[in-house]
Amino acid sequence: MFENQNPDDALKFSVSKLGRDYRLSRNFRLWEAQCSDGSDIVFVHPSLLVLVQVLRDEFGPLRVNSWYRTPSYNATLAGKSSKTSKHLLGMAVDLFPLKHSLESFKNEIKTLPIGGIGIYETFVHLDVHGEGRKW
Predict the structure, then answer these.
(1) Is 124 helix (H, G, I), strand (E, B) or coil?
(2) pTM attached to this predicted model
(3) CATH no. for residue 93?
(4) Residue 34: which of 12, 55, 56, 53 has the closest Cα?
(5) Low-confidence ranges of the chain (pLDDT < 70)
């Protein structure tokens, strides 16, 4: 369920119409998925939303570093991103646990059958595009 999803299935939200505090799930609000540039439109893939909610249920509060990114914002992240970033499709999230050890979170994440798992020093990247990519 959490790998090789179709990008065309992403949901499109408008912050100006729904408000920043619109509930995407039980524990995630629209502002958490919104691009850092403050753009109105936000894309969120439903499989990724289910995945982060399952992780939230298991690990407690999670801090989202980055979810959806607009192409213009993504272009400002030279060296840290690419034109093929899954964040552009609403299919990727970078996050870390607030009340759980980051190391144990990383160890659990490594075992998940999801599209992409990137382990970084201070956060974990997850995406639902493709199959079994790890870095």
Answers:
(1) strand
(2) 0.91
(3) 3.30.1380
(4) 12
(5) 1, 78-81
